[in-house]
Amino acid sequence: MQPFPPNESTLILQGPAGDLELLALPTEKPSNTTAIICHPHPLFGGTMKNKVVTTLSRVCHDLGARTVRFNFRGVGKSAGIHDEGRGEVDDVLVIADWIKTNFPNDKIWLAGFSFGAYVATKAAMKLSPAKLITIAPQASRFKQDDLIQVTCPWILVQGEEDEVVSAEDVFAWVETLQPKPQVIRMPGAGHFFHGQLLELRSRLESALLKDN
């Protein structure tokens, strides 16, 4: 496998479906953490360059973590076709193995937005990351007993005016979880946080600092 680059770089790893396109960002601070960040739904224009995904990357990087954004299979230069979350979880596992090869003592954070939040959460059941960060998770995708395996610290962000993911459904779903994630409610925020990305960044940074 390729080494983690010394500068922000686009890399190609060998994934389960072929080439997997990554954007890896090192940090100048001493770090024992790498964050893997998952993008929204590929069939609706989601890529690793999405603004919410970029915001997640900046938050984690500012807190001293290396970050890895990547394109799910079938997006950009990543080979394969969309697999409704199943193969996308496998993509995350390959990246996690790559990180463990480069930084065997690193903690791994998993983060994602919308469909990417679903994938990150499903991957968390297999990886037991040090932290899970989900923004506008698609609650309807989860089965009732899915999340008993998510025991890591978990921060969930939801805009109250989300026009894609029902905020009411997400908040009701959170009440069924045990343990419950830390919930950040953002009044007035829609699905893509237009005009509220700086507020999103600030709220996430504050929550992560308190959580460390």
What would you say this structure looks like, in words?
The protein contains five helices and eight strands. It is of the alpha/beta class and 212 residues long. α1 (51-62) packs parallel to α5 and α2 (86-102) crosses α3 (115-127). β1 and β2 form a beta hairpin. It is globular, with a radius of gyration of 16 Å.
Please give the structural blueprint.
Layout: E1 9-15, E2 18-25, E3 33-38, H1 51-62, E4 66-70, H2 86-102, E5 107-113, H3 115-127, E6 131-135, E7 154-159, H4 167-174, E8 182-186, H5 197-211
Parallel strand pairs: 3-4, 3-5, 5-6, 6-7, 7-8
Antiparallel strand pairs: 1-2, 2-4
Helix pairs in contact: 1-5, 2-3
In short:
This protein is an alpha/beta fold and 212 residues long. It is built from 5 helices and 8 strands, in the order E-E-E-H-E-H-E-H-E-E-H-E-H. An 8-stranded mixed beta sheet has the order 1-2-4-3-5-6-7-8, sandwiched between helices.
